[in-house]
Inverse folding.
RNA sequence: GCGCCCGUAGCUCAGUUGGAUAGAGCGCCGGACUUCGAAUCCGUAGGUCGCAGGUUCGAGUCCUGCCGGGCGCGCCA
């Protein structure tokens, strides 16, 4: 880890700035530390002299010289050199650096408040698809990255069990399949119930389109589900419960788990909204509109004017007819409660967001829904006190929330922040972070391969949009199945002696690596045109490539132990009395591998700051490339010079440990062989 | 109309507190397995960083305008 060293250097430079130029911490510029472009120039560099040149009326080169001379030698720094241009280059003491890192540094403490990450949130009415994998992979990586730096994280998965999508499939069961509760229950016991619902959902959509009057059945079903009455609601409950279990299994395959499932139905039944409404009224965040076209509604003023005013006639008409209530005003109002007294979707979300921050003044009841792989409970909310006394942890009441939702929900997320602001919860508004990302579409080739007719609208575009409604998309489990199958073929080919169980286990790890790396490596603002051929590639920039590097490093130590009984700990123990010329004066690759390996903590901070996981992915990939090149060029087991061998082994040991941690952050495991 | 996002090599993309010579994968062409595993490595070719201004010692990165593309803006969820 390199950040402790950054801290140390910043302190030293800051100290020198104060002594030389009288620039105390309040007046000194931010001290930027970068890696130098190559090892000849040193290891870390700061351009701080450029920043100061104008202020001190002095050439950068002079400042750099003075600062370099003033920096006291320390245990970790071998020497400091000013460059002609004005950079200050720092050369680290390589053996001291590596030995300290192998010995392990104390973890940095985090001052962060408890953080809630909400992700996945798939409608519980059909199988998960690749778009959902992107959401969950991003969300889960965020969770891991936050926890890595010491932040307390609670993972929530929101279940919209009272929405239109659930109602649609219930209508499908009742109208298209003539099924009753018991029939659906029997069906749900069968394998891949979620696949059945996927198809049924598409059929219902077509059925509605054939006769728009049928939409009345949807409205009726929705009403019954919302009010929890009759067999329709019972089927809705069953459907959502069973589909959520399918989703948990699918996500479990990808090493993704949750602490709490929050059910929308419980928010309704516990009347969170009523409570939130009181708070909104008390703070004046919403008000009743008496006249105009929103007469009878409770509305919230919104900041931006991004509502369409594409009908100039209407604008002119209303403005003239109702002085004082111009449409300009009306356009900056968002309806929260309709004139018929029902709440819009924003209302429910405001209540939920308030609860997340512990600002609602109400809580759910909790039940245990399932078990995690580690045996711990997956909790779920419930609207009734459980019969058995349970002791759930304190859920909610966070200092920061991340809502991982695709970019199309930006407007809603912005409204949530504005509601918090209007209620004078400025700090919470600031800490309601919408982690947005672009959608996953399909490449033309893959869409064709799946047998979909490409609509005219899509023909001109570089990708085909996924549509759950039409059943157009790649199911998550199908993708995983294909990947496992391909990985298994490779593993068996390369390791004929491996038994079938183990080969299957390894193949699953490889499949997970392939999918998760694929979802992480693009920046979140980019549409992914998913192509099955590309995702199936295990070569080049891929998850399996990363695993392969770690496996190779591991196998060196496996052999070292088998042949000579030497462990990584043994190697570490000898370094103090081993000449370090290989590291200090040998080829740069070994030292570069060590230095780059140490940057994980720096990369993690960058990732949290920018919420851009491609940085993490590229770091991992670059590190694997460095190692693979090193591996090819510099032997360890077959190296005869003992000192050289030990220092190389030490470098590889550190690489292996850092690489494994990096992969863990992406939810990727390292098999023993592959 | 307004708001947000995207535009970097043939293709797909990194490059996000502004820093030294703009990178990778794939594809193309050519090399390296009696050696710690070739899911690998080495090399060649390939660039007006959408366009035009501006700020700066320094701009792919920041600002302004424009061009091209995507998404969003309901008393739907």
């Amino acid at each position: 880890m390199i950040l402790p060293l950054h801290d140390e250097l910043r302190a030293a430079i800051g100290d020198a700035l104060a002594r030389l130029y009288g620039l105390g911490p309040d007046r000194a510029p931010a001290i930027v530390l970068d890696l130098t472009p190559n090892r000849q120039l040193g290891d870390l560099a700061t351009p701080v002299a450029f920043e100061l040149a104008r202020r001190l009326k002095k050439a950068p080169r002079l400042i750099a010289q003075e600062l370099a001379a003033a920096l006291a030698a320390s245990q970790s720094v071998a020497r400091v050199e000013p460059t002609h241009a004005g950079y200050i280059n720092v050369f680290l003491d390589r053996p001291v650096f590596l030995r300290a890192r192998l010995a392990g540094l104390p973890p940095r403490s985090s001052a962060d408040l408890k953080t809630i990450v909400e992700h996945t949130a798939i409608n519980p009415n059909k199988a998960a698809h690749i778009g959902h994998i992107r959401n969950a992979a991003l969300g889960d990586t965020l969770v891991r990255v936050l926890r890595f730096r010491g932040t307390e994280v609670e993972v929530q998965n929101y279940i919209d069990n009272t929405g239109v999508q659930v109602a649609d499939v219930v209508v499908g069961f009742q109208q298209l399949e003539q099924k009753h509760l018991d029939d659906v229950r029997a069906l749900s016991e069968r394998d891949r119930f979620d696949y059945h619902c996927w198809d049924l959902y598409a059929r219902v959509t077509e059925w509605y389109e054939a006769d728009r009057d049928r939409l009345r059945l949807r409205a009726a079903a929705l009403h019954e589900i919302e009010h929890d009455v009759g067999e329709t609601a019972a089927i809705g409950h069953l459907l959502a419960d069973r589909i959520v279990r399918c989703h948990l299994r699918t996500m479990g395959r990808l090493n993704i788990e949750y602490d709490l499932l929050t059910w929308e139905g419980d928010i309704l039944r516990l009347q969170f909204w009523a409570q939130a409404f009181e708070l909104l009224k008390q703070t004046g965040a919403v008000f009743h509109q008496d006249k105009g076209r929103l007469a009878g509604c409770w509305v919230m003023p919104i900041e931006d004017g991004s509502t369409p005013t594409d009908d100039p006639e209407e604008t002119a008409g209303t403005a003239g007819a109702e002085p004082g209530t111009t449409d300009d005003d009306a356009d900056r109002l968002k309806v929260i409660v309709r004139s018929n007294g029902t709440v819009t979707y924003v209302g429910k979300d405001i209540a939920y967001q308030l609860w997340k921050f512990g600002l609602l003044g109400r809580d759910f009841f909790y039940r245990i829904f399932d078990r995690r792989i580690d045996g711990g409970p997956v909790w779920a909310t419930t609207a009734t006190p459980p019969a058995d006394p349970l002791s759930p942890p304190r859920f909610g009441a966070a200092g920061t929330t991340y809502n991982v939702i695709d970019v199309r929900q930006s407007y809603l997320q912005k409204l949530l922040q504005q509601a918090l602001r209007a209620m004078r919860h400025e700090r919470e508004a600031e800490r309601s972070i919408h982690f947005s990302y672009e959608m996953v579409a399909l490449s033309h080739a893959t869409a064709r391969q799946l047998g979909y007719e490409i609509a005219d609208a899509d023909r001109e575009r570089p990708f085909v949009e996924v549509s759950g409604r039409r059943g157009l998309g790649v199911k998550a489990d199908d993708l995983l199945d294909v990947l496992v199958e391909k990985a298994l073929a490779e593993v068996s080919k390369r390791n004929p002696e491996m038994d079938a169980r183990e080969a299957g286990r390894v193949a699953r790890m490889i499949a997970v690596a392939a999918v998760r790396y694929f979802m992480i490596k693009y920046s979140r603002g980019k549409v992914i045109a998913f192509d099955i051929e590309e995702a199936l590639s295990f070569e080049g920039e891929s998850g399996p490539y990363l695993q392969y590097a770690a496996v190779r490093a591991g196998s060196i130590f496996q052999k070292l132990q088998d042949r000579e009984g030497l462990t990584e700990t043994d190697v570490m123990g000898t370094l103090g009395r081993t000449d370090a010329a290989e590291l200090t004066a040998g080829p740069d690759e070994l030292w570069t591998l060590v230095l780059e390996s140490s940057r994980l903590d720096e990369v993690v901070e960058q990732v949290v700051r920018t919420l851009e996981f491609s940085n993490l992915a590229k770091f991992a990939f670059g590190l694997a490339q460095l190692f693979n090149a090193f591996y090819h060029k510099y032997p360890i087991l077959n190296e005869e010079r003992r000192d050289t061998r030990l220092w190389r082994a030490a470098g590889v040991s550190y690489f292996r440990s850092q690489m494994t941690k990096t992969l863990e952050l992406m939810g990727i495991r390292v098999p023993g062989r592959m």
Observations:
- The domain at 3-92 of chain A is CATH 3.30.1360.70 (Gyrase A; domain 2).
- The mean pLDDT of chain A is 91.
- Chain A has five domains: 3-92, 115-270+364-404, 290-342, 465-535, 543-665.
